[in-house]
Amino acid sequence: MNCFDVIVVGGGHAGIEASSAAAKMGCSVGLVTLDKSAIGRMSCNPAIGGSAKGHLVHEIDALGGVMGLIADRTGIQFRILNKSKGPAVWAGRCQSDRRLYLDEAERVISSIGNIKVVEDSVNEAVAENNKIVGIVTGSGKQIMCKALIVCAGTFLNGLMHTGLSSVEGGRFEEKPSIGLTDSLIKLGFVSGRFKTGTPPRLAKSSIDFSLLEEQPGDEFPEPFSLRTDKSQFPFLQQVSCHLTHTNSTAHKILETGFSRSPLFTGLINGVGPRYCPSIEDKIVRFTDKISHQLFLEPEGLDDDLIYLNGFSTSLPADIQLEAIHKIKGLENSEMIRPGYAVEYDYFPPYQVDLTLETKLVEGLYFSGQVNGTSGYEEAAGQGILAGINAALKIQKRKEFTLKRSEAYIGVLIDDLVGKSTNEPYRMFTSRAEHRLILRQDNADRRLLKYGYEFGLINKSQFEELREREILINLSKELLTETRVRPDAINNYLESIGTSVIDNSETLEKITRRPEINLGKLLNEVDLKGNGTIQKLKQNNKALEQVEIEFKYEGYIQRQYDMIEKVEKLEKMNIPLNFNFLNLKQISAEGREKLAKIKPRSIGQASRISGVSPSDISILLVYLKN
Amino acid sequence: MDTFVSKFTLILLIFVIYAVFTSNEDTIVALATPPGEGAVSLIRISGGRSFEIIDKVFIGGKKISDCAPGTFHYGKIFNVAGEILDDVIVLKFKSPNSYTGEDSIEISTHGSQFIAKKIIEEILLNDARIAEPGEFTKRAFLNNKLDLAQAEAVADIISSRTDASLRGARNQLDGLLSKQVETFREMLITVSSMIELELDFAEEDLTFMPLSDVDVKLKSIVEEIDKLLATYSFGRVIRDGVNVAIVGKPNVGKSSLLNYILKESRAIVSEIPGTTRDVIREEVSIDGLLFRLFDTAGIRLTEDSIEIEGVLRSREAVKNADIILMVNDLLEGFSQELYNEIIDLNGGERVLVIANKSDLSIEQMNNADAAISAKTGEGIGYLFALIKDKALGQANFSENTAVVSNIRHYNALKKAKNCLLDARKSIGSNISGEFISVDIRNAELALGEIIGKVTTDDILNNIFSKFCIGK
Q1: Per-residue pLDDT at A214 exceeds 50
Q2: Measured in whole angstroms, how far is the alpha carbon of residue B443 from the centre of its chain?
Q3: Of B132, B134, B438, which is closest to A436 when you measure between CB atoms?
Q4: A127 close to A145: Cβ distance less than 8 angstroms
Q5: CB burial of residue A192 (10 Å; 0-12, 13-18, 19+)
Q6: Which residue numbers in chain B have pLDDT < 70?
């Protein structure tokens, strides 16, 4: 077959979600990858989730994506981060068995009938009249398509550095993708160069774990996916991570290698992420810090590899090993693979629209690291959105975008499109101005409806949510109206160390107290066999929502008020072909930025730096015509 | 310069975002006549709540809400304390038959710009907001009251007026304020960083700031904001002038003093057409400060009904005065009785006791601040210096003190302060950082109306530069 509805370039986390979504929506998908056996390979650390990233996984899952399911099936340690804080910043994280993750990803892809995996490289994206028509592969084949989604990760002109020697490639012992960048530049795109790095892998058997601090997972692990069968979870044996620290002796050794550092000698031109610096960067920038924490992550149950998180480096391999040997517990360790830096091409993301379709070529989509992001979850979030939109476009249905107020994926893409990015972009909860309502626990309440609409979520799942919504609303109403008398509740209140009540009080008011757990409270009050409350007590998800909404009502309401105000600006659309250059009254800078980014709404336009408020006023005046 | 412009752009951006998304609902107000020109000032209100708002401040024959559109009405504008601000004429326009196409009110006041400002402030208290440059015209356009050719003109107006306000913002007063607010902004970025650090980088090997430390920082920002807020009344003095009431028993030489000041002061700004009968108002400029002189008839209550109104107005002038010149006749001595009356009305802080007619007597008056002769001018130079000191001394003003003189800045600071107080309350209730962050960000947003917005990137940049992130 040399024709697909959608061609996806790259089988990483973006490519998997893009292929899976488009295929499930009825499109024939060609997934072109350099190596069939590498679909879903974790290039960096063997972990999914983390602060803000866990949120993304839950959102992808609610939209009908596969990342959460694969992570649940292959996780060997699960933790909820930030548990001591409020529910909005609770974030799931798991350690994955790298090999099993790969197997599971492969199984998921092959289980979807419409996906054909093509093992080849892509040399050229072919467009006619600014509309994508197909690709030319490295082996010279021409394949036609209606939509092309580029998720090439770090492979576009990938160049790996260890010390002063560099090798072409996108990942250890894997070839780069050459040709596609040039082809895209010919189509008019602008490319840039980023850098990222990875630490050395050590042999598990050579580490003295008895000297290290152990970090186990949660006692009661929680899965990411709504569709994971909780009765069988966790599927695999659970293991611990370990902590150790660098020291000044190790730092001194690393410093002797600085003269052979590709970073410090100017060999690397790409911009790296500041939140994930190499160990050499940390030593130089934070001279007063004599020790840095290292986190030893197991790469799998039957895998002898340990990932040395915190020790990302591109120093020469001999220096890496010498320094590692000075670190507690690693004195006799064997380095299976040295750390390296990788430089790769990306396309500054102002060139895509909120649907991730490029503004220049119709039917061409970018997602993942080619848009300048970093991280599996960021990539996957874009992948599913691009996959859905490619399918919608082919089926001539209305495009799908997510608002900043409804999903981290919305924040991610709006940031990328409106601000572009000067370093690999990672999600943080602080980037979401509506953080209190973009929680993991309500991802399904926010997004499941879309997954269902696109056929990525099945009906029973959607019905379950709808029933839960009804239960939540009925319960809230009931608890707000139901009062308890002091004599009926004071014994309980006293027993849990919260103040007693003098007059009868509603259950809602009592639930607001930090010490109160709604489930336990409901066990204490006699509601005369009220059916709704009985149901609520048996539905943990609903119970959790009611409790959160009561406890944080004031704050949550403030966020909704803010959203309502912003919404008006977001709803003022700007036509696709609007010619900003014609608006002579707009400042030169504002005009240039608007023409470059081509915002689709006044809200988006107002967030662009360099676009002044008077520019916005003038824009409004013209849009009125 | 560039950074200034971009900061200013950001300020406006926030303002306009606010303005745009509330544009259909907000009722706006502004002075429609150019400042400082003409004897009549026109204030325009436009928006859905125009009638409701005017009825809160205006009392005439009947409620404006009940009046027919296109009619005008004579009455008085009262402030929140129930005091009369001015006699005015109010015109009512009903949507769509108005300039903007919305319900609108026009207030003609024959008072000075000072009075007009007072009235606008009163209207702002009733939930209107100041119109942005060109906004009345913009609304007119959006409500289809203008055609396309006019629309282009509107766009021109908006861009040129923005330039004008840009120029205005460059003056020293605003520059100092910006500098001061900039330090708040930096302190808030630090506080936000501390909070966000713990939320986004909990897994890092870092020591986090306890919330009690955050609270200490917030407390000090609130105190600084309070100091700035306290300069507001003084800032108004700088912008709107100093009210000086001249008080004294008959024939102590009040009028001679007034005349001498008028003669000596470098520029007579204007003679305000009087709406008052018995209080004479003059505006003079001394060393660049605007002084508004009220020559009062007498402040002692009398039973003579003809005098009552004059006395009431005089008492009003004393009450509102920034400085009271109590004139005594050296020959007759100090009037304790009058002094007590003044103290009753305005406290002792603002009184300057003057012993006049030093040309006629060698007597000393022990508690006098200055001995002068309004006839020969002896001691008047010294009196001017005293008056100026008194006016400027109120806020320990120096060339380098930031002063809030603009109602919008004042409101923004107040809003920021309230948000920070909310944040402190949240800290007190032992709640986690992401909730506190909501209030701190709102404070940042409020201050953003005066100076550059705080973005997530600002906070993350600060975190990455100060902390070793990335395990």
Answers
A1: yes
A2: 21
A3: B438
A4: no
A5: middle
A6: 1-25, 34-39, 111-113, 133-134, 146-175, 233-241, 264-280, 285-289, 297-309, 392-401, 405-408, 449, 451-454, 470-471
Quote the CA–CA distance of B262 and B284 in Å, as a whole number.
Answer: 7
| CB atoms closer than 10 angstroms to residue A93 | 23
Return the bridge partners of A96, or none.
A75
State both tokens at A208. 């003295």
Angle between helices A53-62 and A376-394 (to 10 degrees): 30
Question: pLDDT digit string (tens) for A448-463?
Answer: 999 999 999 999 999 9
Mind listing the domains of chain A with CATH numbers? 201-338 (2.40.30.260), 459-555 (1.10.10.1800), 572-623 (1.10.150.570)
With respect to CATH, is domain B172-231+404-466 assigned 3.40.109.10? no
* CA atoms in the 13 A half-sphere facing the CB of A188: 13
Query: Which of A293, A422, A621, A623 to mutate against chain B (most B CBs within 10 Å)?
Result: A621
Instruction: Indicate the CATH number for domain B2-169.
Output: 3.30.1360.120
Q: Which amino acid is at A224?
A: F
* CATH number of B236-393, picked from 3.40.250.10, 3.40.50.300, 3.30.870.10, 3.40.50.720: 3.40.50.300
**Cα separation of A193 and A370, whole Å?**
10
Residue type, A157: N
B162-186 per-position pLDDT tens digit: 433 333 333 445 567 777 888 888 8
Contact B30, B136 (CB under 8 A): yes
- Which residue, among A101, A105, A439, A163, has the nearest Cα to A300 in the 3D structure? A101
Is residue B373 left, alpha or beta, with left meaning phi > 0 and alpha meaning psi from -120 to 50?
beta
Q: Is B384 exposed, middle or buried (0-12, 13-18, 19+ CB in 10 A)?
A: middle
Nearest to A3 by CA among A185, A171, A162, A135: A135
Buried b (16+ CB within 10 A) or exposed e, A546-562: bbbbbbbeebbebbeeb
- pTM for the model: 0.77
Per DSSP, the three-state class of B371 is strand
The ipTM value here is 0.87
Closest listed residue to residue B302, CA positions, set B292, B289, B312, B287:
B312
- For B13, the closest of A285, A583, A612 (CB atoms) is A612
Q: Test B155 with A294 for CB contact under 8 angstroms.
A: no
Separation between Cα atoms, residue B108 and residue B54, nearest integer Å? 13
What distance in Å separates the CA atoms of residue A207 and residue A294, rounded to the nearest whole number? 13
CB pairs under 8 A between A and B: 165
The larger pLDDT score, comparing residue A55 to residue B292, is at A55
Cα(first)–Cα(last) distance of chain A, in Å? 49
Residues B95 and B86: beta-carbon distance below 8 Å: no
Q: What is the distance in angstroms between the Cα of A521 and the nearest Cα belonging to chain B?
A: 21
Please give the structure tokens belonging to residue B265: 């002061």
Reported as a single tens digit per residue, the pLDDT across B116-143 is 888 888 888 888 888 876 678 777 777 7
Structure tokens of A342?
Answer: 């990788």
Structure tokens at A357: 């379709």
A238 alpha carbon, distance to own chain's centre: 24
